Each structure stands twice: as C-alpha cells, then as structure tokens.
Amino acid sequence: MLQSRMKTLVLAVTLSFFGFVAPVLAAGATINVSLADAGAEAELGTDMGMTMKGDMKMAVMHVIPDKTEVPAGEVTFKVTNNSKDIVHEMLVVKVADATKPLPYIDGDSRVDEDAAGHLGEVSELDPGASGALTLTLDPGTYMLFCNIPGHYMAGMWTLVTVK
Fold first, then answer.
1. Which of 15, 19, 61, 99 could be stapled to 156 by a disulfide with Cβ–Cβ 3.0 to 4.6 Å?
2. What is the value of pTM for the model shown?
3. Closest by alpha carbon to 111, among 161, 75, 157, 77?
4. SS3 letters across 13-35
5. C-alpha triplet 99, 101, 104: angle, nearest 5°
6. How far, CA to CA in Å, does 62 sit from each of 6, 7, 139?
7. How many CB atoms lie within 10 A of CB 78?
C-alpha cells in the first residue's frame, strides 16, 4: 500500500513538474536583430530595395538577424540600433511573393506600410537604443526592414522564414 502511494506521489510530482515547465520550454523563438549602417556620411544607394537590381554588397545600411529561420508560433524580435549616428526602426511584413517588390511611395522614399500589411514594428530607435516586438507568426516568408525615408532602398531589409 505504501509503495503504491509513493508511486502515485512520484507520478503526481512528475506530471506537475512537466505541466509547469513545458509552457516555459515552448515559449517561442527569439531573433536578435542588429540595425547597422556605414555612418551618416555614407552615400545612400537608391536601387537596393527588394527585387531591385542593386548589388547588396554595396549596401550601406543593413538589417542583420542572428537567425533567418524559426518555427511558427510566437517570435520575439530583440532589436538593437548599432548605428553611431542614425535613427533606425524595424518593421515586419509577411511577403506573399518574394519576386515582387513591396508597395513603395516614391515621393516619400519609403514603403507604404498599410498596403504592405505591416504586422508590427520597433519604432524609431536612437543610436545605441534597443527595443523588442513579439508576434505570433504563421509559416511563410517575412521581411524585416527599416522604413525611415531612403533606408529600405539603401538595402536595409532582410528575409526570415517561418516554418
């Protein structure tokens, strides 16, 4: 009888432990994102937006994630502006077709966020500042980009795959 109670107690403690720990283990993915540039004096490219013909090796602004593939579900973007003198931001949009550019407002030199279907952003970060954004993402391709005027076309974007 005592042995049976001990087995029941051990089972209850084990299930209780995993019941509380499992949600913590399945908390989601984190992508650390660095926003970087060649400095305020660098000449901005104007032809490095998505699907453009620009040579991305010549880009003077960058969105650099520490991973480009994560599982579907909750994803946290921890964003740091590593620029010495330029404000940046990071927006997230789901990309339906990676061969088509995002809707762009030429007169404003930026992506039309509403038409692109932006899902969230870490707004204007001063140099050295950090911020975070947590989203629940379905499988697909997502773009991370800076939408400060001129930055997207200067190459400040990248793609992330959610599986």
1. 61
2. 0.80
3. 157
4. HHHHHHHHHHHHHCCCEEEEEEE
5. 175
6. 59, 57, 24
7. 16
